[in-house]
Amino acid sequence: MQVLVRDNNVDQALRALKKKMQREGIFREMKMRDYYEKPSQKRAREKAEAVRRVRKLARKRAQREAGIVTGGGRPAAAPAR
């Protein structure tokens, strides 16, 4: 992974690196690899994550079909009169 440092602004480069690592899921993977996870626990965790993903997708699809559109965590706007 590579990040350019512009105008000797190391703080900005570190923020960019951290954002890239967050998007790639590196922090999450490091946290998961911190301790050994038994294969049975890994399967159970992955299954639970898959169920969560499916439920989230179904919830979003149902909201879209119902015409409820929320923008980034804000409540849906009241209908215009």
Question: What report would you give on this structure?
Answer:
- The chain is built from 3 helices and no strands.
- By secondary structure, the protein is an all-alpha fold.
- The longest helix has 28 residues.
- The chain is flat.
- What's the pLDDT, averaged over the residues? 88
Tell me what portion of residues adopts beta-strand conformation: under 5%
Major sheet summary line: none
* Inertia-based shape: flat
Distance between the ends: 51 Å
Fraction of residues in helix: 55-70%
Query: What gyration radius follows from the Cα positions, in whole Å?
Result: 20 Å
> Structural class of the secondary structure composition?
mainly alpha
Number of strands: 0
Number of domains: 2
List keywords for this structure.
81 residues; mainly alpha
Task: Describe the structure concisely for a colleague.
This protein has 81 residues and is an all-alpha fold.
Protein topology:
Layout: H1 10-24, H2 26-32, H3 39-66
